[in-house]
Input
Amino acid sequence: METLTEKSASAKKSSDPNPPTQNRRNRIWESMKQQKYLYLMSLPFVVWVFVFNYLPLWGWTMAFQNYKPARSFGDQEWVGFKHFVELFSDDRFYLVLRNTLAMSLMGLIVGFVVPIFFAILLNEMRGMFFKRAVQTVSYLPHFVSWVVVAGIITKMLSTDGGIINDILVNLNIIDQPIQFMAKGNLFWYIVTASDVWKETGWNAIIYLAAITGIDQELYEASRVDGANRWRQMWHITLPGIRTTISVLLIMSIGHLVSIGMEKQLLLGNSLVTDYAEVLDLYALNYGLNMGRFSYGTAIGIFNSVVSIILLFTANGLFKKITKESIM
Amino acid sequence: MANKAFNATRGDKLFDIFNILAMTLVLIVTLYPFLNVLAISLNNSTDTVRGGIYLWPREFTLQNYKTIFQYEGLLQGLQISILRTIVGTVLGLISSSMIAFTLSRPDFGLRKFVSTTLALTMYFSGGLIPVYLLMRDLHLIGTFWVYVLPGMISAFNVFIIRSFIDGLPYALQESAKLDGANDFTIYYKIILPLCKPVLATIALFLAVGQWNAWLDTYLYNGSKAHLTTLQYELMKVLQSTQQGSGAGRNANDMAQQMTQISPESIKMAITIVVTVPILIVYPFLQKYFVGGMTLGAVKA
Output
C-alpha cells in the first residue's frame, strides 16, 4: 500500500509554506476550479464507494439492538451484547467455528504450498511446448464457476460412473464404491482438494513471474560449483521468491476466516451439514432466512474482528522474522 | 528459464523424468473432468445411466442439447447472464479507469483521500446481513441492477490500472495540456487508448466474475424467474438430486426441484453450455491476464 500515499506529499509542495489564510482559500478554490474535471471524475465514485462499502458498516449497530425492520433507527431497542452472549453460548456456533477454521487452515496450508511447488516444477520443465501446454491448461479451472466445479467434483466422486470410485475399485483398493459426498468426515478434504484443483495453476502465475526475475547468473555460478537441480531449487529459486511468498502468505492469513460459503453451500448437503456449515452459511441460515437480523450481524462482526486480528498478528510476526511488511 | 541441457548428471535426468510424469499427471487431472462432462453430454441420456462413459460418448446424440434449449429458464438465464456480463464489464471499466486516472495525477487535491477510502475497502466488509438490508433499502432486490451496481468498483482493479498509468510518461499529459486539452479529454483521448492492455485484463476479470456469479441471484433474485442467471439455473438443476443440500432454500423452490430431477446427460449438457463461453474467450486473452496478474503481484 505504500504506493498510495507517498506521492501526495509532492502535490502539496507547490503551495507556499505559510500563506495568508485568505490567499490560501483563494488558491484552493482556484485549484479546484482548475481540476474540476478530476473532481467530477472521482467524486461520484467516492459517493458510490461510500454507499456500497461504508454504509453496511453502519448496519453493525444492529448487532446491539433487537432490530425490527419496520422501525426507524431511533425506535430500535438497544440490548447491548445480548446477541453476542447468545452466540457464544450456542453449541452450534462452536461446531461452525471449528468447520470454518478447519477448512480455512487446510485451504491455507495446501492451497499455499501446492502452487509454489507447481510453479517451481513447471519452471524446471525443459520442453517449451509441453511447458506452455501444461501452463495454459492449469489456468482453465480458475475461469469456471464454483457451480460448475461443484457439479464436476460431485460427478467425479459419484458411486455410479465416477472415475475415482472406478479406479479405486479396479485397483482393488476398495471393494465397494464409497459415497464420498455423504461422508461428513471427508467433506473438509473434498473442499480442500477442489480448491487445489481449481486454483493451483492460477495462483502459480505470480510465483512463475517472480522466478523469472531471479538473476540467471546465480544458476550458472551454482552449476560451476557443482550444485544439482534439487540444490538449485532449494538454495536459489526458493530464496529468490521469498518476498513474494511472505506477502501472499500474509494476505491469505488475513482472509483466513472469511472463506465465504460458495463451496460449502454448493458441495454440502443435509447429510454432511455438521461438517459443511461455516460462519457465513450459519449467518445465512440462522440470521437471514429466519429473519434474526441482529443475531446474523453479530456473527458477521465476529468474523470480521477475527480476520483483522489474524491479519495484524500475521503481519507483525512476519515483520519480525523477515523484515518485510505489506502495511 | 530452464537450465541448459549440457552436463546433465544422472540425478538431473532422474529429476526430468519425475518432472515430466508429474506435469503429465497435472494435465490429465485438469483436463479429464471436462472431457468426461463433454462425453456424457453427448451421450444418450438413458444409456448414460449404465455408467462407463469416460472420454467418448457410447451412443452419440445431440438430443440433450435440444432438450435443454427448450427449457425456458435456460434461455431466459442466458439472456440475463449475457446482459449482466456486458453491462457489468462496461460500467466496471469506465468507473475503475476514471478513478485510476485521477489517482495517477500528482496534482489532484483529493488524491490521498480517495485512495485511502478505496484501500480500506479491501480489508473489511459489512457482512452478509447488513449488505442484504442495504440492498433492500436501496430497492435493488428484485431488480437487474443488484447484479452490477454493488460490485462496480473494486479497489484492486483501480490500483492495477493506476499503476499502469503511472508507468506512462507524464509528459504526454503535460503537452496535451499546453495544446489546450482539458483533463477529461486527456483521459479519453490519451490515457484510455494507451491503457488497452491493462483494460483488457480488467475486462476479463470483470466479465468472468459476472458470468460466473450465482450467489447474488440466490440471495436477491431467486424467486424472480425473469431475472435468474444461467449459473443459478445450472445450480438448481445440478442440485436436483441432492435434495436438501444447501439448507435454507425456500419451500417453493424445493418443491419445484423435486418434480424435475434431471438425467445425468442433461445436467452435463447445461454444464457445457455454461462453461463454453469462458473456454472460447480465454486463450485469446491469456497474454493479457498473465501480464495483469504479474502487475497485481508487484503492486498489491
The two ends of chain B are 25 Å apart (CA to CA). DSSP finds 15 helices and no strands in chain B. Chain B touches chain A through 113 residues (CB under 8 Å).
